[in-house]
Design goal:
6-stranded mixed sheet; 4-stranded antiparallel sheet
């Protein structure tokens, strides 16, 4: 077999093998993108006290990241469907509508392989 044919076959085989892990996303224990269905509360008074926000959805893991108005805040994953986060009063000092969302980290500690990352839908939080 000519050298060129061997080279093409080798590259084709390597390319096919490299794609296999990506095709398995959603299968074999690979985690899905987190889904944020609701938050509670959905509003607070400007200048009000700190509070605990409860997030409900699906596919939450211990390495799911919580964002409040574009700022990553510490959160606790209670279950695959519930997370909680402490919102300090500094984040609600002035009236505004802020987006709340979560994201998964591709290949994070609870994920199998390169999948599982991605942003959830953004939900509004109103500061009155």
């Amino acid at each position: 077999m000519p050298l060129r044919s061997r080279f093409v076959i080798s590259i084709t085989l390597l390319s096919a093998l490299a794609i296999i892990p990506f095709l398995s996303c959603g299968y074999n224990g690979c985690a899905d993108i987190p889904v944020l269905n609701s938050i509670s509360p959905t509003s607070a008074s400007a200048g009000g006290p700190a509070f605990i926000m409860t997030l409900t959805g699906r596919h939450f893991h211990t390495d799911t990241v919580f964002f409040f108005g574009g700022t990553e805040l510490a959160s606790t994953t209670v279950s695959a469907a519930t997370m909680t986060a402490s919102i300090d009063s500094i984040y609600i000092s002035t009236p505004a509508t802020l987006d709340v969302w979560v994201t998964g980290i591709p290949g994070g500690s609870n994920l199998n392989g390169p999948c599982g990352g991605g942003l959830s839908a953004k939900l509004p939080f109103t500061i009155q």
